[in-house]
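PROTEIN SPECIFICATION:
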Amino acid sequence: MRALFFFFLATISAIAAQKHYDGYQVFEVNAKDKVSLEVLTKLQNERSDVYDFWTEPRNANRPIDIMVPPAFIKKFVDLMQAFDIDYKVKIADVERIIEANRKERESVLRNKLRSRSGAPRYSLNWESYSDLPVIEEFLTELAALYPNLMTTSVVGQSYEGNNMNLVKISTGGSGKKAIFIDGGFHAREWISPSFVTWVIRELVENYAAHPQYVDNIDWYIMPVVNPDGYRYTFAANGDRLWRKNRRPNDGSACIGTDMNRNFDFHWDEGGSSDLPCAETYNGGAAFSEIESRIIRDTILGIANQTMVYLTVHSYGQYWLTPWGYTADLPANYDQLYDLAVRAVDKLTAVYGTQYTIGSSTNVLYVNTGPSDDWAMGGAGIPYAYTLELRDTGKYGFELPAEYQVYQVKAKDRVSFDVLVKLYNERSDVYDFWTEPRYVDFTTDVMIPPAFTKTFVDVLESFNMEYHIKIDDVQQEIELSRLDIAPPLAPKKALQRSPGTPRYSLDWTSYSDLPAIYEFVNEIAATYPNLVTVTSTGLSYLGNDMPILKISTGGSGKNAIFAEGGNFDYYWNTGGSTSIECGETYHGGAAFSQVEARNVRDAMLSVANQTKVYFSFHSYGQYWLTPWGYTSALPDDYQDLSGSMSPLEDQDKLLDEALSVVKVQALQMKRCLDKRKLMDALKHASTMLGELRTSLLSPKSYYELYMAICDELQHLEMYLLDEFQNGRKVADLYELVQYAGNIIPRLYLLVTVGVVYIKTNEQSRRDILRDLVEMCRGVQHPLRGLFLRNYLLQCTRNLLPDLAENDPLATESYGNVRDAVDFIQLNFSEMNKLWVRMAYQGHSRDKERRERERQELRLLVGTNLVRLAQLDSVDVELYKKVVLPGILEQVVSCRDALAQEYLMECIIQVFPDEVHLDTLHTYLKACAELHTDVKVHVILVALVERLAAYGQRQQALGQPPIPPHIPLFDIFSDQIGNIAQARPEMPSENLVSLQVSLISLAFRCYPEKINLVDKVLESTLVALDKIAVEKVDFDSALGKELNRLLRMPISHYNSLVTLLQLPHFGQVLQRLDFNGRKSVALHLVNNALDNETYITTQEHVDAVLNMLAPLICDQPDQVLTGQDAEDFAEEQNLMARMIHLLAAEDTDLDQQYRMLTSARKQFGAGGARRIPFTLPPLIYEAFKLARKYFDVRQEDELWEKKCEKIFTFCHQCIAALVKAELAELPLRLFLQGALAASQIIFGTHETLAYEFISQAFTLYEEEISDSKAQFAALTLMAASLEKLDCFSEENSAPVRSKCALLASALLRKPDQCRALILVSNLFWSSTTKELEGKPMRDGKKVLECLRKAGKVATECLDPGVQAQLIVELVNVYVHFFHQGNQHITVTHINELISKVRQDLLPQLENSDEKELIERHLGASCEMLRHRRDNPSTTSDTPSYQGIILD
C-alpha cells in the first residue's frame, strides 16, 4: 500500500509540474499555390515560438501538420481562410491524447506494483510507452534469459550521464555481415524505442521461428540514442513534445541540439538551423554532441562488416534513402530502392500500411548532417535508411495501442476451418465484421490490443494472408461522433442563395431518425408539385416507414426505386445464419420481418414501371450487381459496368494547347490559300500565343514549340513567295506588329527577317544584329530560351561564314566575325536566361528547377555547336576571339551547373587541334570556376579527348602530339595549380585527375615509363598535403586510388615492369588492408593471365612484398571471419603464382635462392595459408632436384645441392605438421620418398627412408579417423610398391609395418581390404638386391589373403561378408593367374562355394543382394571362359577343376 501511495503522489506531482498542452490542436493544412506556401514558410521561420510545425512546409499540395496553442487558434484559422489554404483539425486536443497514454502507463505500473506473479514476463509489454530505466531493465532481463544469443554493453554516457546501451544479437562465429539499428534520435518519438525493443525481443525470443536471420547476420542495436531527451519527455518537470538532446548551448538560454543534423557528412549545407533555439539546430559544429560521437565511434568499430544501417523515427510512413543534402541519388540507388521496395511490400502485405520510398531530399526536404547520410557516405555502409514509422499524423507523436481491424484470407481448407472455429467459439474476443465464407475469401476481424500478437501468431502458424485494414477503431468512432448532430438541434445551414429554403438536415453531420423524417416533410411541403410522401407501414417498434415519390406527373414513365433484408429469393441458401444471436440471422423464414414485407409491398406496387433498383449500404466502396446466391452472372451483366481514366495534368494542358495550335494553323493555311495575309497573321499570332504559357514543364513546352515551328514553315514559304513577288519588307514588318503580345510578335519578326535575308543577302548583317537584339524583349527564362533557339535554328544556314579578307564579305553581307558576334551574343543572353532559372521561385523547389535546367541545357549548348560549324573559324580566330568570349561568359555567370556543362561542351564540340593550341587558356579558366563545379570531370574529359586524338595520330603514322606542345607537363602543372587554387576539392577528385594523367601517358607517351612514376609521386605528395596515411578502400578516395594502381597493372601486363616504378609500392601502402588486398588479387590474376615469370630473387622479394596481404596477416587487418570459399580461392591463386617463380634454365642456383626466399615469406602465412602455398613450393623443389640430376655431368656439387633441396622439402613438410595437419604432409612425405628414390645419389636411400618413416609416424600419431586411416594406408602401400631404392634391410620392416597397420584398422571391412592391398607388397615390390625384379613371395601373399578371409568371415553382416569374399575371389584369381604356386583352384572353389551356399541364401531380395550376385556372376563368367578356353602358353595356369555351377 505504501508503494501505491508514493506512486499516487508521484503521479499527482508529474501532472502538476510537467508542461501541459490543454486545448492545443494539430491542424493539417495544404497550400494550394506558391503564395500560400510562402505564407506557411514565413510562419515557420518567424513565429516558431507560437506555431510548432510537426512536419515542414515542403511544397504545394503536400499536407503539413502544425500544433497551435488555444489562444492562437482563431487567428490561425483566420489566416488560413484569408489565403485560401485548406485546413482541418487533425488532433482536437493534444493533451487529451497525451493524458490517455499517461493513464495507460500508470495502469500498467499499478499492475506491476500489485503483484509480480501476474506480471508479464518482461518489464516492457509494448501496450504502453516506457521510460529509459524500464527499457534498460528489459534488456538486462532478456540478456539473462538468452545469454547465448544476446549481449548488452554500455558504449558511452550521455551529457547528463545516462548510459548509451548497445545490444548485440549473434550466434557467434566470424565473417558474418551485420545490420545496425538505432532508435530514439528525437526524444518525443516514443514509438521509435518501442519498435526497436520489439525488434530485439522478436529476434531473440522467437529465434527458432526464423533462425536464418541470426545465424547468418550479426545485429547491433541501440534502442535509445538520445537518453537525456527521452528521459526529459517522461520527467515530472519535463516536456512530452521535447525533440532535441539536453546539452545547454553556449551563449544561448536555449537547450539542445537536433542530433540528426549533427553528423559530419555535408553538415550545415541546408535543411538545418544555426539558431540554438530552433528545433533543427545543428549544434554549431559536426559531431559537437557527445551522443552523436558515441554513435559514430560505435558504427565505425563494426563498419567493415555492416551492410545495412537503419535509423527509426516517426512519423509519416516513409522509407527514406540518402541523400539528404542533394537531390542527386546515390550510385547504388537502384539496389537501395529495390531492397526498400521488398521491405515495404512485406509491411503492406501484412499490415496494409503504405510507405513512401525515396531519397530524403526528393521525398521530403533538404536535410544535411543526418545519420543515414553519414552512415553511407562517411562510414561506407552500402545500405542506409531512415524509417519514419506510423502514422501519417492522426496521432502525431502519441501513437496509442488500439483495437485494429485485420483483413484475413485463408488459403486452404485447414486455415479456413481455423477461422470458422474462431468465429464460432471466440466471438467474445474476436469480432468478425465479415464472416468467413470460403477459402480465399477476405474476412474483416476486429482484434483487441491485448490479443493482437496471439491472433497474428495463429494467422502465421496456418499461413494465412493478412494485413491491417483499420489501425485504430476507436479513433474512427470518435471522428464519426463529431459528425453526429443532436436531434433537431439548430445546425449550421447549407449556404444557399437568397430565398432558398433551409432544412433540418445539412449533410455536414449525421442525423437521427426524427430529423430525417422532419426533412422529408419539409421538402414535400416546399415542393408539393414534385414530392409526395406516403407510408408503406410501421416497423416492429412502431416507427413509420415513409416512401417519397419525386415526379412531375403523367403516366407511362419508367421509374427508379432506391432504399437505404430477409427477402424471398433463394432465401437461406448461403451467406446467412440460423443462429438467432448471429449478426447475419435470416429471420427463420423469408419475409418474417414486417420491415422486409413493407419494402416488398412498396416495390411490388411500382414493379411494372421500375427499371432501376438501388439499395444503399456500407462499407467497402462496392457497386454490386446480382446475383448473391450464385457466382453466375445475370444475362445483362455487360450493361451494368464502365470505366474511364483521367489524364495527367501535363498531358491535359499540352493536349489543350496542341488542339488550339491545330485549329489556328488550319485557319492560317486557309487564309494563306486565299491570300488573306492579314487574317493569316492573326491566326499565326493566336497560335503563337500558346507559347506564352507558364504551366507546362520544359518537356511539354518543347513538344508545343516543335508543333508550332512546323506550322510556321508554311508561313515562311508563303512570305518567301511574297518577297519574290515584290512585297516590301516594311509592309510585312508593319503587318506583324499587329500581334498583340511580344511573344507572337517576335516569332513573326524572326520569321519575316529570315525570309528577307533569303531574298536580299546584302542586308543580312544588319538584320541579324536587329533580330538578336530584339529578342532581349523576352526575359522569361523558358520562353526566352525557346525564342532564341528559334532564332538560332532559323538562321543556321544564313550566317556570313566568310573570311575577313574574302572579296564577297562586304560590309552589308558581313564576315565570319559578324557570325561569331551574332552567336556569342545569342549565347550570352541564353546563358543568362538559363542561369536565371535557378533563382526564380522558392528554395524548396530548387531540385525541380535544377532538373528542368538539365532538360534545357541543350538549347544553350547549341550555340557552341553552331560556332564549331563555322568553316571560316581558324585556330587563330578561335584562340583570340571565340574561346575568350565563351570563357568570359562561362566564368562570369558563377553558376556551377552552367559552368560544368558549358566547359564540357567546349571540349566536345570544337576540334582537337584548337584544344592543343589553347590548353593554357582553357585550364586557367578551370581554376576560376565556381567551387561547386566538378573540375576533375571536366579535366578528365579533356585528357580523354586529347589522348584519343594521340592514339589516332599514331595509327596514321604521325607523332601522337606535336613535339612543340609539352602536353603532359602542361596538364601536370595545371592540375597542380588547380589543386592549390581549390583546397576544398575532394581528395578523390584529385586522384581522379592523376588517373587521367596516367591514361594520357599510356596513350600518348607509351615509351616514357618515368611519366607514370611521376604521376604516382604526385599522388603521394597530394596525399601528404591532406595528411592521409591510410585510405579506406570503400571510400570514394579508396576507389579512385585503387583505379589508379590498377591502370599500370593492366597496361603493362608485367609485374617486372611494375618494379621499375619506385613509387608504385609506396602508393599501394597508403591503402588500407582491404585496398591492398584488392590490388594484390589484381596483380596475381594479371600475372597468371599473362604468364609473367619472375626470374630473380630480388624480383621475388619485391613482388611478394606487394602481395603481402595475400601471404600473411597484416597489422591493420581486421581479423574477422572471411568467407571460406573466398579465402580458398585467394590462396589457390597464390599457389598458382608460385609456379611463375622460374629462373633461367641455366641458373639453377638462382632458382633455389628464389624458392628459399619465397619459403621465408610464405612460411609466415600461418596455419590457414601454408596448406595452400607450401605444397607448390615443395613440388617446385622436387622439379629443381630433377633438373640438377639431369645436369649432373656439368656440376660437381650436384649431390650436395640435391641433399639441400630435400632437406628444404623436409622442413616445409614439417611446418605443415606443426600446423596440426596430417593427411597433406603424409602425402607430401610419400611424394618426397618417391622423388628421392628416382634421383640416384649417395644418400638418396637414407632420405627416402626418412620420408617414409615420417609418413608412418604421422599416420600413427595424428590420423585417428578410420576412413582417413584406410585412405592413408592405401597411399603408403601404393608408394612402397613403387619404391626401388631400398635394400632388403630397409624394405622388410616397412612391409611388415604395413601389414601390422592393416590388421590394426578398426573396421573389419577396412582391415580386409587393407590386407589385400598389403599382399601386393610381397608380390610386386622390389629391393636393390633384386635389381628391379618383383619380389614374388607367394607364401606371404597367401598369408595376407588368408588373414583377410578370416577377417571377412568375422563380419556379422552377411551382406558385407559376401561382398568382401567376392572381392577376395577376384584377388585370389589375380594371383593364381600371375603364377603364385601357393594359391590353388581349391582356394577359389571354397570361396565361391561359401558365398553361394552359405551367405547368399541368408540375404533377402534387395539391391545389395542383386549387386553381389552380379559381381560374383561376372567373376564366374571370366573363370568359365578361362576354364573352357585354356591357354596354349606354358606359363599360364590351368583352370580345370574350377566349380562354377
About this structure: The two ends are 100 Å apart (CA to CA). The CA atoms of residues 1349 and 1368 lie 7 Å apart. The first helix runs from residue 2 to 17. The first strand starts at residue 25 and ends at 30.
